[in-house]
Design brief:
Elements: E1 3-4, H1 7-17, H2 28-34, E2 38-39, H3 45-51, H4 59-67, E3 71-75, E4 81-85, H5 86-103, H6 116-128, E5 132-133, H7 134-144, H8 150-160, E6 163-165, E7 179-182, H9 183-187, H10 196-207, H11 212-219, H12 225-231, E8 236-239, E9 245-248, E10 264-266, E11 301-304, E12 307-317, E13 320-327, H13 333-350, E14 356-361
Parallel strand pairs: 1-8, 13-14
Antiparallel strand pairs: 2-4, 3-4, 5-7, 6-7, 8-9, 10-11, 11-12, 12-13
Helix pairs in contact: 6-7, 6-8, 7-8
Protein name: Winged helix DNA-binding domain-containing protein
Keywords: DNA-binding
GO molecular function: DNA binding
């Protein structure tokens, strides 16, 4: 019979792999590789997510890694933008393509007349001339395919042409309207063939122990049960408190459930809160609806004793930086003290020009 792992044990195992039990002094690209990519739907969150995980992290570290092309921002898991190492992008972008093809269904009737066998080569030829904004890509394709919905043309390129975003000297690495480059040109390397088994092993290293359903939620790829069955001989198999089967790498860290977990702040869209179908290892089911806004933004959360106990937001006005905590429930004084200390450090990183930094606690939501 498989060993049963408690929610608390799963929490500590995942935090250990996500560099959240203790900051580590490692190169930024190594950190992103350990995390198996970071959701980067907006450019700022990866800076905050790395600050909370990497000892001594400076914004310039990430700028350097993006400009030397060891890290790229590109469409990957769940058809969303991620910060990923160049080597992982090359290794796994082709593995994502079936999911990205399926994502095209969202176009519905807007896809009328869209012929990918014509549009994709036309887009590649245009981008081969140099990086382009999507406004430029859509306008160019509309000239060649005037009867096809302009937005459908742009979405097809995002899903079906491997692209990376071109970094700039903007504070958070990218302007509001970014340019995109062909991935194989930018990285000077062809993309590798599909490697689904290897991707799932990397997922377990970053987020395990986990179920096939968890991996599907993280990746957006369907029907992964057969993949884990194929990998089963080389994996440890556990069960959660509801009897569901969990898989893990044999030598992956699984700390004791009573290992201390420090106060930490996760940015918006952090992969940790999106990486499992059963998210109780990070946030209680009762609080999960609070994670997402009506327009589908994933809120920033703070961790106390390893679990999400509320959301937070940062405001900067008249050189006053305010970090406002919105706990799900009243917090003990020890939690507030630790979160205040960590929050003040976050403010010094995020708004170094502030003449005053404040941590405030709103009424529980």
């Amino acid at each position: 019979m498989a060993e049963t792992l408690s929610v608390q044990t799963l929490n500590r195992a995942t935090l250990a792999r996500q560099l959240l039990l203790a900051r580590e002094r490692i190169p930024v690209a190594d950190a992103v590789a350990r995390l198996c990519a970071m959701q980067a739907q907006e450019p700022k969150p990866p800076f905050l997510g790395l600050w909370t995980r990497v000892d001594g992290f400076q914004a310039s570290d990430l700028h350097t890694a993006m400009h030397d092309r060891s890290l790229v921002r590109a469409t990957m898991m769940r058809a969303t933008l991620h910060l990923v190492t160049a080597s992982d992008y090359i290794a796994f972008r082709t593995t994502m393509q079936p999911m990205l093809d399926t994502a095209m269904r969202v176009l519905g009737d807007r896809a009328a007349g869209l012929d990918l066998e014509q549009v994709v080569p036309a887009a590649r030829a245009f981008l081969q001339e140099g990086p382009r904004t999507f406004n430029e890509v859509r306008a160019h394709l509309q000239e060649g395919f005037p009867d096809v919905n302009e937005r459908a043309l742009g979405y097809a390129v995002r899903m079906c042409v491997p692209l990376v975003m071109v970094p700039t000297e903007d504070r958070w690495g990218f302007p509001r309207t970014s340019r995109f480059a062909l991935a194989d040109t930018w990285l000077d390397a062809p993309l590798a063939p599909p490697a689904l088994d290897s991707l799932m092993l990397r997922y377990l290293a970053a987020f395990g122990p986990a179920s096939a359903a968890d991996a599907q939620t993280w990746s957006g790829l369907p029907a992964l049960g057969e993949v884990f069955d194929r990998l089963r001989p080389g994996l440890r198999v556990f069960a959660d408190d509801k009897g569901r089967e969990l898989f893990d790498l044999p030598d992956a860290p699984r700390p004791a459930e009573d290992v201390p977990a420090p106060a930490r702040f996760l940015p918006e869209f952090d992969s940790l809160v999106l990486a499992h179908a059963d998210r109780r290892r990070i946030i209680a089911d009762a609080h999960r609806p609070s994670l997402t806004t009506k327009n589908l933004r994933v809120r920033a959360v703070f961790l106390w004793d390893g679990f999400a106990h509320g959301t937070w937001e940062l405001e900067y006005k008249r050189r006053i930086a305010t970090l406002r905590l919105r706990p799900f429930e009243p917090l003990p004084s020890s939690a507030l003290a630790a979160l205040t200390t960590e929050g003040e450090a976050l403010l010094r990183f995020a708004e170094p020009a502030a003449k005053e930094a404040r941590v405030e606690v709103a009424e529980p939501v």
